[in-house]
Amino acid sequence: MEKMDLSKFALADLLLTAVKSEISSQEIYARLALQVKNAFLQERMNFLAMEEGKHRQALENIFHQRFPDREIIVPEHPVVPLPEIHISDEQVPLSEIIAQAMKSEQAAHDFYLQLAELFNDDSEKKNLLLYFSMMEMGHYKLLDLEKNNLERLEEFSQEQELIHLGP
Amino acid sequence: MEKMDLSKFALADLLLTAVKSEISSQEIYARLALQVKNAFLQERMNFLAMEEGKHRQALENIFHQRFPDREIIVPEHPVVPLPEIHISDEQVPLSEIIAQAMKSEQAAHDFYLQLAELFNDDSEKKNLLLYFSMMEMGHYKLLDLEKNNLERLEEFSQEQELIHLGP
Questions:
Q1: Phi/psi zone of residue B93: left (φ > 0), alpha (ψ -120 to 50 degrees), beta?
Q2: Domain segments of chain B: what residues?
Q3: Among B138, B149, B153, whose Cβ lies nearest the Cβ of A145?
Q4: Which residue of A63, A158, B35, B100 could cross-link B85, Cys pair, CB 3.0 to 4.6 Å?
Q5: Backbone φ, ψ for residue A42 (5° rounding)
Q6: Tell me: the pLDDT tens digits for A59-93?
Q7: What is the pLDDT of residue B157?
Q8: Which residues of B touch A50 (CB under 8 A)?
Q9: Is B47 an 8 Å CB contact of chain A?
Q10: Contact B14, B6 (CB under 8 A)
């Protein structure tokens, strides 16, 4: 994601953007965990889903602290469109889904880094968002290693696992 | 770890070296999880401990398959001395323990990469060991990000968390 000025958006909308992104990532990883054959990768997907779920909770807490009178309504179209994983109803190679998830993690990393700048008056929340940014980068790196491993296996003509995320 | 020729060692001893290393890492991460204040980091430590435990199980399975008549006796002094975390009975800054854990993960990565070469007759086990190598590199990268985060906090004169791993 290019460096963008988030200060033109309402803070509530930005927090809801992040909540939506975490819900979407959590769902994808949970679905992947049900489908991948590799038991180690399955555990890793469950772990990523768990972390995204905790991010969501923390973001909702921040929202309630800042906007105690407002309800959380997850927007269909968030103010900042973050890349999500395209859910097709066809089978897709696992490495392709991982590549999409990496883009989404990179964007989340960038988004939190910029969102943190809007919390200069609250160092605790600012540090939490910077920590989330770092965590998403950790997801990116784990996924990158998994993708490299799949590509290595493919070189030795091992069949790519196909995943069906869609309905 | 420098590139070393593992073929001069007995395979059983090399597998026991790896088992010992996984036990030691699992124990460290489990102890860290009990001590760190950050709930996200705590979950990550538990996750790393869980993965090391699964590696240990898988290595023990390989040992039993290759040496069905032998018992697993974890050596006090493995044939290849892998760096372990120094357990002092004093309090140590968290970032220092993480730095030591990173060295240990790097060494485990290198070790599995070389151990895999001894399984050229068994592509399933070879791929599993290469996968473990990749997983340890994932741990290294996650720890590196955590260490950077602690150093960033320190720049803003936040006190370093002290950890007591020893008896």
A1: beta
A2: 10-163
A3: B138
A4: B100
A5: -60, -45
A6: 999 999 999 999 999 999 999 989 988 888 889 99
A7: 67
A8: 43
A9: yes
A10: yes
Q: Which of A132, A155, A152, A148 is nearest to A25 (CA)?
A: A132
Is the Cβ pair A145, B152 closer than 8 Å? Answer: no
SS3 content of chain B, % helix, strand, coil (to 5): 70, 0, 30
Structure tokens at A45: 């997907």
pLDDT of residue B61 exceeding 90: yes
CA distance A52 to A19: 9
For residue A46, the chain B residue with the least C-alpha distance is B47
pLDDT of residue A2: 58
Question: What is the dihedral sign for C-alpha B107, B113, B114, B118?
Answer: positive
Judge: domain B10-163, CATH 3.90.550.10.
Answer: no
ipTM over 0.85: yes
Pick the CATH number of A10-84+91-163 from 1.20.1260.10, 1.10.10.10, 3.90.1150.10, 3.10.310.10: 1.20.1260.10
